[in-house]
Amino acid sequence: MEICPILFFLIILVSGxxxxxxxxxxxxxxxxxxxxxxxxxxxxxxxxKVEPCYLNGxxxxxxxxxxxxKRDLTFLRTISTLWYENKKVIEWKHIICTGEDDDFTFxxxxxxxxxxxxxxLRGAIANYPMGEYNAILKGYxxxxxxDLFLCINYTLILKKETSYNFG
Length: 167
Description:
Oligomer: single chain
Strand content: over 45%
Largest sheet: 6 strands, antiparallel
Helix content: under 10%
Order of helices and strands: HEEEEEEEEEEE
Distance between the termini: 16 Å
Shape: globular
Strand order of the largest sheet: 1-2-10-9-5-6
Radius of gyration: 15 Å
Number of helices: 1
C-alpha cells in the first residue's frame, strides 16, 4: 500500500506513543526534532512509528501502527491539520473506515482489540523551510464532532533548511 505525499508528511508527524499530556521526544537528529503529546482527555494506546527517523535522502519508509482502540473501528473519520508559524497550512479530512470494503486491515477491529500492522510510505519532492510545524490528528467514531476519541498533537522542528527528497 502506498500513501500520498501530503498524507506522508502528516504521518511522519504522527509517530509516537500517546499516554501523557506533556510533550515527549520521539526522535532528535541534527536536522529535526519530533515531539508528541495527547491533545484530549483520552488515554488511547496509540503508536505510529516511521523508520528511519530522517527526511533527507530517503524516499520510502516503513510505518508501523500499534493501537488498542477504546471504541469499535467500524467507522473512523479523521481530521488532520498542519500548522506552520501559527498559520494553518492544510486541513485534510478523510473517512478511513466505512464498514464496507475498507482498504485498511484495522477497519472493523473491536474495542480493546490489538492492532499491529505495517505499511510502506512513499513521498514526492518537497521543500520545507526550517522552523516549527504542528500537526493535530483527531479521530471520530461518527460524523458527529462530539464522538472524538483520539487526539494527538505532534511538533516537528526542522533545524536546517534543505530540500527533502520524498520521491
